[in-house]
Amino acid sequence: MPRVVPDQRSKFENEEFFRKLSRECEIKYTGFRDRPHEERQARFQNACRDGRSEVAFVATGTNLSLQFFPANLLGDQRQVPTRDYVDFERETGKVHLKAPMILNGVCVIWRGWIDLQRLDGMGYLEYDDERAQKQQQPSHSLDL
């Protein structure tokens, strides 16, 4: 299980890295850049339906490999993501995405949307308070 820091909320609210990424900003799909645009569009949609994708925050150059599943189901590779995590129907021509993760020791949820034609959109990180409370490390943990 990935490690979390003791005061996740404080780290999320005070570190510049998280402050920048918690504001909605431009994102781009980064997979298969060497392939023709039409092929990239198809591969992106298929990857979303499989519950994964690669995106980058344009302004910071931060690249993320996302998995669109509830945090406790990441081990089952045959799981199909629900509309809570991958929603092609909310808005025509876009897919809305949600990906919980532990990033730099903090439980967060990546949220965003990507235009299916242009393969860009907007995204941000939000603090995952519910998961952070469940993931707290015991104070007597040992690092080897």
CATH superfamily: Core binding factor, beta subunit
Count of individual beta strands? 7
| Cα distance spanning the termini | 15 Å
User: Helical element count?
Assistant: 4
Largest sheet: 7 strands, antiparallel
Q: Which descriptor suits the 3D outline?
A: globular
CATH class: Mainly Beta
Number of domains: 1
Return the average pLDDT rounded to an integer: 89
Taking Cα atoms only, what radius of gyration do you get, to the nearest Å? 16 Å
The SS-based structural class is alpha+beta
Which CATH architecture is right? Beta Barrel
Pfam families: CBF_beta (PF02312)
Protein name: Core-binding factor subunit beta
Family: Belongs to the CBF-beta family.
Main location: nucleus
Labels describing this entry:
single chain, 144 residues, alpha+beta, Polyomavirus Enhancer Binding Protein 2, Chain: A, 7-stranded antiparallel sheet, 4 helices, globular, disordered C terminus
Quick summary:
With 144 residues, the protein is an alpha+beta fold. The chain is built from four helices and seven strands.
Strands, helices and their partners?
Blueprint: H1 8-14, H2 16-21, E1 25-29, H3 37-50, E2 52-57, E3 62-67, E4 86-87, E5 94-103, E6 106-115, E7 120-127, H4 129-135
